[in-house]
Fold this protein.
Amino acid sequence: MLNVVVIMGRLVADPELRTTTNGINLARFRIACDRSYSRQSEQRQTDFLDVVAWRQQADFVCKYFQKGSLIIIEGSIQTRQYQDKSGNNRTGVEIVANNINFGGPKNSGTNGGGSAYPASQPRSNAPSARPSSIEAVPSYSAGDTDDFAVIDDSDDLPF
């Protein structure tokens, strides 16, 4: 059987880091994910999905992501049964994250894009100084098509 989920969305709130009685880190958070289909006259619908991350993934998401960050999650869907405060049986559905990645660059003016750069160190748009060894590499994007030779591939492969 197969239970694989890959989803990209924005964090609705800052992730909550908790530690179990056994000392294992756990992070819970919710992401907003737009649906890919919408009727022509309607606004696109958004789903709000609960995610749980364990151990190093929990540490990673709490360190580098906050409300508004674009995040990509690979994991599986898991259900759990519990009783609410009134004694009613409930079913919780959540995504258990196996792998978490940055979904995009840092948003302008905020640190909500999931960037690894701290807010106290703004990135510069000025070109950085490159080592001379990199500058010596020719650029082929502006090359002439006469610079390339045609390779005869009519023979059998050598292996």
In short: The radius of gyration is 24 Å. The longest helix spans residues 55-64. The longest strand covers residues 70-83. The helical segments are 55-64, 132-135.
